[in-house]
Structures are given as structure tokens and as C-alpha cells.
Write a structure and sequence with these properties.
Length: about 130
């Protein structure tokens, strides 16, 4: 992921604790990167361990605080609560929350089953 260091700096974000769901790839990874480059203390949740590890590795040398990744399936509410408790225990209270995680793929409406619908709603809306 290319890093663009010519962006506006927001001093109020320095050292702020930020949590981003779905932060391992795509828009979520870009948010992790840019909050980290603002000097924020970023934690992010995702189920994609490989992409998350790569992102943390890429940002370790350029960010003031290395982002913290926690593997978490947002549909597992006890695991989500445990992840939040761990973040607050290690990093302090959250100041910024970005609910970015989503699950979708391209399909015809005829392919949508009740189970498919319930799973997407659990990821996309419930958390």
C-alpha cells in the first residue's frame, strides 16, 4: 500500500485511540494507514489474518504507533466484547470508532436465501 505523506495533519488525532472494523484490506486498510500516519493509536479488527499482518508490517516503520490487529469475527458477540475490553485495557478508552466491516458479493436477488440475508445483516448492520 503506497503511503502518501503529503496530507493534512490533524493534531487532535495524535495519540487518539481509534478502532476500525474491517481494517485489513480495502477502504479499512486505507483508514488504518491514514489514522496511524496522523499519530493515532490504531486498533483494527478483521478475520483476514494475512492481510492484517502485512498491513501492520508495512506501517511499523512509518507510524508513530504500530497499529494493533485483533482477529475478530464481528458476528461472534462474546469475541467482539473481549476484543473491545482488550483494546481499552491496553490502549485506553476509544476516541474514534469506524464501523467499516462489511460482507458482500455480486449475485442475483433470486440467489439470496434467508441464511445468506441473516449472515450479511449480522456483519453489515448489527455491529
Amino acid at each position: 500500500m503506497p503511503t502518501n505523506k503529503s496530507f493534512v495533519q490533524y493534531p487532535s488525532l495524535r495519540d487518539a485511540v481509534v478502532l476500525i472494523t474491517g481494517g485489513a484490506s480495502g477502504i479499512g486498510a486505507a483508514m488504518v494507514e491514514h489514522f496511524a500516519l496522523q499519530g493515532s493509536r490504531v486498533a483494527f479488527l478483521d478475520v483476514d489474518d494475512m492481510s492484517a499482518a502485512s498491513l501492520v508490517s508495512e506501517l511499523q516503520s512509518s507510524a508513530s504507533h504500530s497499529p494493533q490487529f485483533l482477529h475478530c469475527d464481528l458476528t461472534d458477540i462474546p469475541a467482539l466484547k473481549a476484543a473491545l475490553a482488550k483494546i481499552e485495557g491496553e490502549m485506553a478508552s476509544l476516541r474514534v470508532l469506524v464501523n467499516n466491516a462489511a460482507s458482500d458479493d455480486r449475485h442475483s436477488f433470486a440467489e439470496v436465501t434467508p441464511e445468506y440475508w441473516d449472515q450479511r445483516m449480522a456483519v453489515n448492520l448489527r455491529h
